[in-house]
Amino acid sequence: MELSTTKVPSGEEVLSLYNSVGWSAYTDQPEVLFEGLKNSACAIYAYDDEHQLVGLVRVVSDNATICYVQDILVRPSAHRSGVGRALFSAVQAKYEHVRQLVLITDDEPGQRAFYESMGLAEGSDFRPGVIRLFAKFS
């Protein structure tokens, strides 16, 4: 596996990856997805040994106080191969100086276990007091 911030995949490769995980909210408007990737503070791409795109992570950040993991996805054929862990670890290393690392994800037990294994905690588990999250999805 190879991680890269400079080997940028084609639009077709990106759409194939997002389609593979069923994220049609992105693939229904590819121009918006491509603009989001282009304007991200950081995008890291994962390639398999055949140089095929198998995962990516993209970050929105001010590089001082917050790092928001907007997308992290791995092609289903590469699940449980360490790709997601490598991508997330790369973000943690790049933004270790930033006070807050945040993400929003689906309510799926496997995701919770993965993110907890990466050192994150769910907002409702913070003590003392609960962290609140407010969001608007359009």
Automatic annotation (TrEMBL):
PROSITE patterns assigned to the protein according to its UniProt record, in alphabetical order: GNAT
Domain N-acetyltransferase: 1-138
InterPro entries attached to this UniProt entry: Acetyltransferase_Butenolide, Acyl_CoA_acyltransferase, GNAT_dom
Signal peptide range in chain numbering: none
PANTHER family the UniProt entry points to: FAMILY N-ACETYLTRANSFERASE, PUTATIVE (AFU_ORTHOLOGUE AFUA_6G03350)-RELATED
UniProt name for this protein: N-acetyltransferase
